Amino acid sequence: MHDIVIVGAGPVGGCLALAIADADLDVVALDARPANETLRADRSLAISHGTRLVFDRLGLFARVAAVPQAVTPITTIDISQAGGFGVTTLTAEEHGIPALGYVVSYRALTQALDDELGRTRTSLRYGSPVAAVTATADGATIELAEGREPLAARLAVVADGAGTVVAGVQRDKRDYGQVALIAKVDTEAPHAGVAYERFTPTGPVALLPEADHYGLVWTMAPAQAERVLALSDGAFLAELARHFGTRRTGFTAVRERRTFPLALEVARPTTGQRCVLIGNAAQSLHPIAGQGFNLGVRDAFELAQAINTCAREALGERAMLDRYAARRRGDRYAGIAFTHGLTQAFAYDSALVSWPRGIALALLDAMPPAKRAFTRAMMFGI
Ligand SMILES: Cc1cc2nc3c(=O)[nH]c(=O)nc-3n(C[C@H](O)[C@H](O)[C@H](O)COP(=O)(O)OP(=O)(O)OC[C@H]3O[C@@H](n4cnc5c(N)ncnc54)[C@H](O)[C@@H]3O)c2cc1C
Question: Domains in the chain and their CATH numbers?
Fold first, then answer.
C-alpha cells in the first residue's frame, strides 16, 4: 500500500506533491495528461503575494520567473464602477512589496512543477486517468481507467480540478447565469503592471497585465457573449472601449476570444473516508476577485503541513483529516463568501446599489487602514 496517492498533478496537486517531497513517504502522483503536455496551455493564473511566498518556499517562483514572459507583476490595481462615482487604487509601493500579485502562465508553472517533481523520489505517472476513488476504514482504492491495476493508499488526495471521481461527496452548485469572455488584448500604451477591475451594468470586467498584452475577463449574459464573440475584431474592440469607459483606453488588437460558464461549486465536505479534496476539486469560484487558485494553493500548503507532521500510520485517519478540515474551514468559507458577496454586490445596475458601491469604493480609497486591510485580504486571504 502507498502512503499517499495524489489524483491530478496540476498546479494544486503538483504544489502539494512538492511540499511533501522531503517527507519519508511513498507518494504517487497520477495525472491524465501525457508527459510534457499541459491541457490548459493558453490559461493564465492570477496569484497573490501570499501565493508567491509559498512558491518561494517550494523553490518554484524563480524557476517560473526565469521563463521569458511567464510571470508579470501586478504593481497597481485600479477598481472602479461604470456609470457611478468611486474609485480605489491599490499599489504595491504603499505596502512596501515588489508586487500585489502576479499573472503566471499555466503552462510554465505546470512545466516547472513537473521538472521539480522529476528531481524528487515522488513517482509521477502521466497518462494515468483515474476513474474512481473508493475507500474503507483501512485504506483508499484508486481505480484507474482502461482496466489498469488499481492502487491502494493510506490517503487519497483528489486535485483533479473537478472532484467528481469521489463518490459520496455532495457538490453544491450555483450557476450565475453568466459567462466569462476571455481574450488577449493589445493596447497603444504598455500596461506598466496596472490591473483594472471595473464593475459595469452587465457584470465585472478585468484587465490583467500579461506579458506584453492584457488578459481580458469580461462577464456577460450568454446571449450577449454569443453576439460579441461573432463580432469582427474591429467591432469587438469598439464595443469593449464603449463598455470599459475612460479608465483604460487605446485597445488596438484582440485574439484568442472564448467563453466559459460562471458557477460557484463547493464540495461538502472536502474530506471523506481516507480521502481529501483540494484546489478546484474542493471549490471552484467566480473569477471576480482572483481568489480561486490562491485558495487552492493554501489548501495544498495546509495539507502538506498536516502530512509532514503526521505519523505514517495515522495518515488518512479520521482524526488527521478532521484536524486539516478544521484548520481550512475559516479561510475557505471566508474566500467563498467574499467572492460570492462581490458577485452579488456588483451584480445589479440600480441607483440603489450604485450609490453605496461608490461610497464604499471612495471610503476605501480615503481610509488607509481599511485599504490596508482590504489589500492584505487580497494578498493573503480573508
Ligand atoms: C475555463 C476556466 C478558465 C480559468 N481562467 C482563469 C484565469 O484566467 N485566471 C485564474 O487565476 N484562474 C482561472 N481559472 C481557475 C484556475 O484554472 C484554477 O483555479 C486552477 O487551475 C486550479 O488548479 P487545480 O490544480 O485545482 O486544477 P486543474 O488546473 O484543473 O488541474 C487538474 C489536473 O488534474 C488532472 N486530471 C483531471 N482529471 C483527472 C483524472 N480523472 N485522473 C488523473 N488526473 C486528472 C489534469 O490533467 C490536471 O493536470 C479558470 C478556470 C476555468 C475552468
Answer: 2-40+106-171+265-344 (3.50.50.60)
Per-residue pLDDT tens for 8-17?
A: 999 999 999 9
What phi and psi, each to the nearest 5 degrees, are found at residue 332? -65, -50
pTM for this structure?
Answer: 0.90
pLDDT 10s digits, 331-365: 998 888 888 777 776 665 555 555 555 556 555 55
Looking at ligand 1, which residue's alpha carbon is closest to its atom 39? 160
Q: Which residue has the cell 453544491?
A: 172
> Which protein residue has the closest C-alpha to ligand 1 atom 16?
293
Q: Is the CB of 304 under 6 A from ligand 1?
A: no
Across 242-247, average pLDDT: 85
Please give the Cα distance from 276 to 324 (Å, whole number). Answer: 9
**Residue to probe by mutation, ligand 1, list 160, 264, 297, most atoms within 8 Å of CB:** 160
Q: Read off the amino acid at residue 268.
A: R
d(CA 163, CA 51): 22
Per DSSP, helices labelled H in the chain are 11-19, 49-57, 61-65, 106-118, 222-230, 233-244, 292-308, 318-345, 351-366, 368-380
d(CA 82, CA 199): 6
Distance CA 264, CA 344 (A): 12
Q: Evaluate: CB of 160 within 6 angstroms of ligand 1.
A: yes
